[in-house]
Amino acid sequence: MKEEEVPLIPPPYIPPQAPPLEEPEQNRAGEISEDVPRGPVTRQRARQQNLYPLREMPMGGPQPGIGFISVPLNSGDVRDFKKDMGNLLEDPLGVAERVDQFLGPNIYTWEELQSILGILFTSEEKNMIRRAGMRIWDAQHVQGPQADLKWPLQNPNWNHQNGEHRGHMQDLRTIIIQGIREAVPRGQNINKAFNERQKKEETPTEWLERLRKNLQLYSGVDPDSPVGQALLKTQFVAKSWEDIRKKLEKLDNWQDRGLDELLREAQKVYVRREEESYRKQARIMVAAVQEGRKPSRPPPKTPPRKKQGGPRETPSCYYCGKPGHLKRDCRQRIKDEAVFKED
User: Fold this and answer.
1) One Pfam match, by short name (predicted)?
2) With contact defined as beta carbons under 8 Å apart, do 81 and 51 qualify?
């Protein structure tokens, strides 16, 4: 029987004008709540990771105002959303809009946003999003602060009870959404660059090289750049010949594997296919040679007719039935015909 997950809501807190409420660190930033029942770690429980983004709420009490409460969100919800999110490389604008709607009005910590990005995107896609978002932020904020301060690589330990830190959290979310929107170059011929499929007799190396040339020719994207590598990897797998595509898609987390590793795996499938083809041809040739070496059989001889021994039988007349003469010599026939003529 499936265990029902009951999200835990930490107590609310209010801005600095009121005494801040301490919130246990283990209940923040994607950590598993301490109140979750202990026991064997099943696959279902391992996937359910609790997140607690903040939401503005009017607060009552002796000092009314705007406060913030944590709204439960688990990693299972994020994985369910990913099914309908779409593909970043094919529809970055649509993905950005849907992610923005999914995040809603909540405020997320650095750790929570990293956890969500880790579920929704591959490592290469996350790097594409970060570079694009930071580039746009720096272009829009020439006077600072710089984007690497807004999206640090290490946990900055922002305090959700600190107004300035909450501002950093909101800016980070903005950078992420902008990065998703601008992660993929908007080349006019990007579809033309990938409007082909691998031919059956084309080696994986030749197929990848053709993709590289098309990418440079029609989109202007550098194939060796992180963006180019991500585009090539997706198209290399999706547009490969059927047996190669099925093998690559069965690899665990193939999206996170390097292009060189995928090429090696594709080459193995191609070589096995060629070896099987050679073996089949060899079997046909051996069978043909063996058939040619068989001695030819002479045609069956017709047995000679046996000579009939003994005296020949005397023919009988067809007219009178007496033996010893034929019809044309039959005297009875001649006599009867003479009588008929006289009459």
Assistant:
1) Gag_p30
2) no
Burial class for 37, CB neighbours closer than 10 Å (0-12, 13-18, 19+): exposed
| 0.85 exceeded by pTM | no
112: number of Cβ within 10 Å: 22
Backbone angles phi, psi at 164, to 5 degrees: -65, -40
pLDDT in tens, 110-133: 999 999 999 999 988 999 999 999
Convert 101-159 into a string of H (helix), E (strand) and C (coil).
HHHCCCECCHHHHHHHHHHHCCHHHHHHHHHHHHHHHHHHCCCCCCHHHHCCCCCCCCC
Q: Could you count the other beta carbons within 10 Å of the beta carbon of residue 174?
A: 16
Asked if 163 and 16 touch (Cβ cutoff 8 Å), the reply is yes
Q: Which amino acid is at 132?
A: A
- Cα–Cα dist 68/9, whole Å: 12
Q: What's the burial of 333, exposed, middle or buried (CB within 10 Å: 0-12/13-18/19+)?
A: middle
3 state SS of 316: strand
How far is the C-alpha of 154 from the C-alpha of 262, rounded, in Å? Answer: 30
Query: Using one digit for the tens of pLDDT, what is the confidence trace for 205-226?
Result: 999 999 998 887 777 788 888 8
Region of 263 (left: φ > 0; alpha: ψ -120 to 50; beta: rest) is: alpha
Least confident residue range of 13-17, 140-144, 155-159, 334-338: 13-17
Helices 259-293, 226-238: crossing angle, 10 deg rounding: 30
238-282 pLDDT per residue, tens: 999 999 999 999 998 888 888 999 999 999 999 998 888 778 787
Token couple for 112? 């929570």
User: Could you tell me if residue 301 is left (phi over 0), alpha (psi between -120 and 50 degrees) or otherwise beta?
Assistant: beta
Q: Rounded distance, CA 188 to CA 191, Å?
A: 8
Task: State yes or no: pLDDT of 100 exceeds 90.
Answer: yes
pLDDT in tens, 128-157: 999 999 999 999 999 888 999 999 999 999
Place of tokens 């990771």: 49
What the block records as the tokens of 299 is 């045609």
**Could you tell me whether strands 73-74 and 50-51 are parallel, antiparallel, or unpaired per DSSP bridges?**
antiparallel
